[in-house]
TrEMBL record:
Its cofactor is heme. Pathway: Secondary metabolite biosynthesis. Heme binds at residue 422. It is a single-pass membrane protein. Keywords: Heme, Iron, Membrane, Metal-binding, Monooxygenase, Oxidoreductase, Signal, Transmembrane, Transmembrane helix. It comes from Postia placenta MAD-698-R-SB12. It is found in: Membrane. One of its GO terms (cellular component) is membrane. This is Cytochrome P450. Pfam families: p450. Belongs to the cytochrome P450 family. It comes from the Eukaryota. GO terms for molecular function: heme binding; iron ion binding; monooxygenase activity; oxidoreductase activity, acting on paired donors, with incorporation or reduction of molecular oxygen.
Length: 496
């Protein structure tokens, strides 16, 4: 009877590679670049691929249409998160709303973030801080071009988020809050390999001692956990005190506290706000930094694209100032570059969703607790929307009719789906546009040369991990003219 029931059930499941007893499909998952293996399976099995990782059912969504149907159309059942033992229990991100189940606590944090990041007025209120940060980045690129790297770009993003979330202006390049956060995020990324994420699927592993092979990562957990705790606590405490002392109140933490009755938060809400603020900082820095690094890499590899964009910007702003958001509609080619960067950068593997109850999806019985992985990478490589998807070619968006261009805009999916869609998407896009258009207007970017004067040709290749960065590359960045050099120096001396 059990065999018979099992057959009936599995006949209603989507297809997928054959699992082994007990371990399921674990043996077929590579240690790196799982999204590429998922994409191969998608070509073989179709839009929905069913896997089992130990006892946990996993549904991989291969196409954009299926992702929209399931994660947007059925968002009342597909907005949960799986229980993330590793990040929540081990590393202490336990009240960070990106990782918690769908429910009241998530709703409360998400509502605060909505008012702070998703309304027109709130977005407009950050434009000054964003402009200032971009000017500081341009000045750093002018003075230390050889250190352009992810380090410089991450510091720029970190500085901006410190102001916007905590009202804290970095006064030194070695800011203590930023250093701690960098160490916490670096430690999280290093520990978050396949061995540690298996704990999410086989929670019993959490009880194994660290001397057992594969469990060595557990020895480093206390140190990273402490750093995560400090990242959440210290800037929040500083921001709260600064608010009580009556300083500038335009930052996230102050805005939320002052919007509460009597301008005070109850103790449990204080904890939630602290984690919501920490989540914003962490979610913003690496995702934006990798997008900007990929832009630089693409410009090194495609100088003709950079020249075309510079000509477009010169026609609109005339080399006398930097572009601003009001110029965006007049700079369609720059917008195409940004879309192509989003498509190729593919900064973020996404966070899995989970089913909150049993449901029939596309005729398949999908059980409560099934983990849903939207393979965003496969969507960026869909050759029916993006012919020759491995080629960086911003013109592809100009050649589409308006309906297809709308469908193919990567901003429609790289920020996720449904109720869990990235709340920072408008903020991120505005920021990325401002930064990229300013760099194009101000700098020439080309290949670095080795000691013999030969050009060093970088590769468009990426690291593996939750947030994927371009592999380190060298490039040559210099101001386009003496006039742009002067303009940047002036802007950094007289901040906007
Ligand atoms: C290029 C930049 C960015 C990309 C590609 C990106 C992408 C994503 C994706 C794919 C998700 C998961 C959505 C889902 O579960 O369906 C997400 C979630 C999230 N993002 Fe972003 N993001 C970016 C920048 C930002 C920024 C700048 C912020 C904050 C200012 C931010 C805050 C968040 C938060 C808080 C979540 C969790 C949402 C939730 O679980 O309710 N992100 N992001």
């Amino acid at each position: 009877y059990v065999w018979y029931r099992g057959r009936i059930r599995s006949s209603k499941l989507p297809p997928g590679p054959r699992p082994l007893p007990l371990i399921g499909n674990v043996h077929q998952l590579p240690l790196k670049d799982q999204h590429k293996t998922f994409a191969e399976w998608g070509r073989e099995y179709g839009d929905l691929i069913y896997l089992r990782i130990f006892a946990t059912p996993v549904l991989v969504v291969h196409s954009l249409s299926a992702a929209r149907e399931l994660l947007e159309g059925k968002n009342s059942v597909t907005s949960d998160r799986p229980h993330m033992v590793f990040v929540r229990e081990f590393l202490g991100y336990d009240s960070c709303f990106p990782f918690i189940p769908y429910g009241e606590v998530w709703r409360r944090q998400r509502k605060w973030v909505h008012t702070a990041l998703e309304t027109k007025e709130s977005l407009a209120s950050y434009s000054r801080s964003q402009r200032r940060a971009v000017h500081a980045l341009l000045s750093d690129l002018l003075n230390e071009p050889e250190r352009y790297s992810q380090h410089l770009i991450r510091r720029y993003m970190a500085a901006m988020m410190m102001v916007i979330v905590y009202g804290h202006t970095m006064t030194s390049k070695d800011d203590a809050f930023v250093r701690t956060a960098e160490e916490a995020m670096g430690g999280t990324a290093k520990l978050g390999d396949i061995a540690s994420s298996l704990v999410d699927f086989l929670p019993i592993l959490r009880h194994l001692p660290s001397w057992i092979p594969g469990m060595g990562f557990k020895r480093k957990i206390p140190q990273v956990r402490q750093l995560v705790q400090k990242t959440m606590d210290e800037p929040f405490e500083m921001a709260r005190k600064a608010m009580i002392d009556g300083h500038d109140q335009s930052y996230f933490v102050a805005k939320i506290i002052s919007s509460q009755s009597e301008g005070r938060l109850l103790q449990p809400d204080q904890l939630l706000l602290k984690y919501a603020a920490g989540a914003l900082y962490i979610a913003a820095v690496d995702t934006t930094a990798t997008t900007l690094s990929t832009f630089l890499l693409a410009m090194v590899l495609h100088p003709e694209v950079l020249r075309k964009a510079q000509a477009e910007i010169d026609r609109v702003v005339g080399g006398t100032r930097l572009p601003n958001v009001e110029d965006r509609a007049s700079l369609p080619y720059v917008d195409c570059i940004i879309k192509e960067v989003y498509r190729c950068a593919f900064p973020f593997l996404g966070i899995p969703h989970a089913m909150s109850r049993d449901e029939v999806l596309r005729g398949h019985n999908i059980a409560r607790g099934t983990v849903i992985v939207a393979n965003l990478w496969a969507m960026t490589q869909d050759s029916t929307l993006y012919p020759e998807p491995e080629t960086f070619r911003p013109e592809r968006f100009q050649e589409m009719d308006s309906h297809t261009a709308e469908q193919a805009d990567p901003r429609k999916f790289i920020f996720g789906f449904g109720r869990r869609i990235c709340p920072g998407r408008h903020f991120a896009d505005m920021n990325i546009w401002l930064t990229i258009s300013s760099i194009i207007a101000a700098f020439d970017i080309s290949k670095a040369r080795d000691a013999e004067g030969n050009e060093i040709m970088p590769q468009m290749s990426f690291t593996s991990g939750l947030v994927s960065f371009p592999d380190p590359f060298e490039c040559d960045i210099r101001p386009r003219t003496a006039r742009t050099r002067h303009l940047i120096s002036q802007l950094s001396e007289n901040p906007a």
